[in-house]
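Q: Mind making up any chain with structure tokens?
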Amino acid sequence: MFTLPLEPPLQKPPPPVTSDDPASTNNNKPAHNFVTCIHKVKLGETICHVTVTWAKTLISHTLYITVENPLDENHYTCKIDLKTWQFWGKKGLKTFRVAEKRVDVFWDLRSAKFATSPEPNSDYYVAMVSDQEVVLLLGDQKNEALRRTKSRPSLQDFSLVHKKEIVFARKCFCTKTTLGKSKKEHSIIIESALCGPYDPEMWISVDGMESIRVPNLHWRFRGNETIVVDDFPVQILWDVHDWLYNGTHSGVGIFVFRRGVNEGEFESAHLEEDEDFGGSFCGGGGGGGGGGVGGEEEGGSSSMGFCHFLYAWMTE
């Protein structure tokens, strides 16, 4: 049992999928998958949060960028349609003001490569510019972004403070996240064997190496372990109760990856057993607003380090 205090969400979620959307379902399952990242950036002399959400349904594929206005509760959300039939619509520029400062968002997704995630794998950039500085830069085409924006990199680098996503699969769930001291992304694979003559088991691998093996999953469907990645402690927490006890070996499993956790901090961290972890997403709230996410609490501490919440929906 662990409570995981985090910074409260600072943005409004993307519009929920309505019941008449053909992508919606009636079995408490999210109607779309998404990846949401909260970055801490510097706009002028002010530190604020920028939330980036890649959301995909059967009929839409959208990028939302929400910029916190630190002076009041009004935030600006930039919506970019990635499923447009117009090729030139995948490259563009939007301008708005935050706390009286001009902010430009440049993007080029014409050659972006996608796999199963709504977030691109490569060949793209999304750049946010203020005062002729690139304060946020996503994607692998950094040189192209700097040339197009005609701006210099910010002297204070942005930082990723929170990530959450939904992944659908039958047995094997794959994701990438930053775990060590650097910004290097590591590949994570979660596999399970729930049926057959043996007791159910689960494996969690990092960069192709098995890091955690959980035998006798009937008794250890909730738990945690600490591993070391790049000489840095990483705490992994899981709750896969629904995988085992909903009757069809489907449902949501929740995984939390916490970077840089000391043993003393861990003693006070626990997931609430009665928390409906998947409930906050079933209405399509992929942007991270509204209800708490796996224990997010109002007024939570931001000193806990980077956290990645993975909602692994096992399909039949």
Notes: The chain is about 5% helix and 45% strand.
